[in-house]
């Protein structure tokens, strides 16, 4: 996995392509993060940018797990009640799509 540059909360206001990580709350360049969206009431990785609706971003597997620990993190990010089953398998899908990581 390539290292990413530390961001600052201020950048979120200026930059259009920076997002806050749901796990570590760092503001990072969108391209270095994984977008998560809701598919059939569950959180799914939006690997090819085709899932619409609200999105949430995580920068690493560690951050995904952090977000999973806080049950309200996804509910708040998506403004909906999210089924938390299967969250552990999200990163497996990410890894499968990004073998270089
Ligand atoms: Zn993070």
Core attributes:
globular; alpha+beta; single chain; 20% strand; 3-stranded antiparallel β-sheet; Hypothetical Cytosolic Protein, Chain: A; 101 residues; two-stranded antiparallel ribbon; binds zinc ion
Provide a concise account of the structure shown:
The chain is 29% helix and 20% strand. It is of the alpha+beta class and 101 residues long.
Question: What secondary-structure arrangement, pairings included, does this model have?
Answer:
Blueprint: H1 11-14, E1 18-20, E2 27-29, E3 34-39, E4 42-45, E5 55-58, H2 61-69, H3 71-78, H4 90-97
Antiparallel strand pairs: 1-2, 3-4, 3-5
The structure holds zinc ion (ZN).
The site of zinc ion has 8 residues, from loops.
End-to-end Cα distance, whole Å, is 5 Å
Small molecules held by this entry: zinc ion
The pLDDT mean sits at: 84
State the CATH class.
Alpha Beta
Class inferred from helices and paired strands = alpha+beta
What would you note in describing this structure?
It is a single chain. The strands form 2 sheets. Strands 4-3-5 form a 3-stranded antiparallel β-sheet. It has a single domain, classed as YlxR-like (Hypothetical Cytosolic Protein, Chain: A, 2-Layer Sandwich), CATH 3.30.1230. The relative contact order is 0.18. It is globular. With 101 residues, it is of the alpha+beta class. The chain contains 4 helices and 5 strands, in the order αβββββααα. The mean pLDDT is 84. Zinc ion binds next to loops.
